[in-house]
Structure formats: C-alpha cells, structure tokens
Amino acid sequence: MEVEVSEIDELLVELIERVTGELGVVIYSMGIEGEFTDEQLAEELGVEINDVRRVLFALYEIGLASYRRKKDEDTGWMEYYWRINYEKEREVLRKELEKTRDKLSAKLQMEDETVYYICMNGCVKVKYEEAMEYGFACPKCGGMLEYLDSREAVARIREELEKIEDMLRMIS
Ligand SMILES: [Zn+2]
Q1: What is the side-by-side order of every strand in the sheet holding 145-147?
Q2: I need a surface site. Which of 23, 50, 83, 87 has the fewest CB within 10 A?
Q3: What single-letter DSSP state applies at residue 1?
Q4: Which residues form a coiled coil (predicted)?
C-alpha cells in the first residue's frame, strides 16, 4: 500500500484536532516562530484566553508545545511564554502511531484467538464459552446466537496495521 506525504500531514492535523479541537489546528497552522504569551495569541485571534490556554496545554500534553514561566515584575503574576515545537511533529506522530499499532495488534490477537457468537438481532457479541452457557440463545432478546466469521474483521485490522507500519517507516 502506498503512503503519501500528504497523508502524514493529514494524520498530524487529525491528531491535533482530536486532542485540541479546531482552534488547535488554527493555532498550529499559524507557523508561529519564537515565544508568545497566551494573551497575545488570544488577542490576535479574537478568542477567549481560556480557550487558547486549553489548546496550548493540550498541545503541551502530546509534546507539540512547551512553555516557561516568568513572574511579571509589575503585576506579580506568573506569565507563560509559549512556543510551538514544530520540530517535534514527526516524533510526536511516531509515538501516536506506535500507540495505535500496539492497540491494533492486541485487538488482532484477540480476534485471532477468540471465537465469537453474535445475536442475529444485533444485541450482543459473546465468546464461545459464554454462548454455550446461554445455550446459544441471546440473553437479551432470546434470539439465536450465531457463529461470527471474523475473517473480514481480521483482514481489516491487518490492512490498517500495514498502513501504520508504512507510515512509521516513512517518518522514521
Ligand atoms: Zn438478541
């Protein structure tokens, strides 16, 4: 499967949007160089300072922003001087991809090792042992529990995993 550079950019935007919301994408896309305060940024964007702070701390959580604190001599308040860590985006993305990969691998193993039964009315998905206990009748609606062919699900997970491996190769 081919992975394009634009897909990596898209992935980064997706990640930022997921952890910060849309405002984070706006702020990140500004390409801000050097330090700034949340106050300056809020003013420039015409948004609430608390929203800017929330975004910046969320970016900080995943490693895409950092700050230093300095006491304002006049007011005595602590000022936060922020910077966006554009140089870390590949590293951050790699970590996120690795997390997703590990989750998918665990899921794949689970699907591979486990035989599931589902209610034909869509109420439940249970393991074989449980289905036996229920006498292959749905505990909710009484409908029949049927063997779930997981081959398709497994193939989908494998495909996703391959794509993630490709992306990881591309950004490392
Ligand atoms: Zn049912």
Answers
A1: 125-127, 116-119, 145-147
A2: 87
A3: -
A4: 83-114
- 30 & 50 share domain: yes
> Are 101 and 108 within 8 A, CB to CB?
no
Q: How far is the CA of 133 from the centre of ligand 1 (A)?
A: 15
In the predicted model, what is the mean pLDDT of residues 19-41? 95
Question: How much distance in Å is there from the Cα of 149 to the middle of ligand 1?
Answer: 18
pLDDT digits (tens, 9 = 90+) for 106-134: 999 999 889 999 999 999 999 999 999 99
Regarding whether 51 and 12 lie in a shared domain, the answer is: yes
Task: Give the side-chain half-sphere CA count within 13 A for 34.
Answer: 1
Both tokens of 44, joined, read 């420039």
What is the pTM assigned to this prediction? 0.73
**Structural domain count, the chain:** 2
Amino acid identity of 51? Answer: D
Residue type (1 letter), 97: L
Are residues 50 and 12 both part of a single domain?
Answer: yes
Give residue 72's pLDDT. 86
User: Do 77 and 114 have their domain in common?
Assistant: no
d(CA 142, CA 30): 57
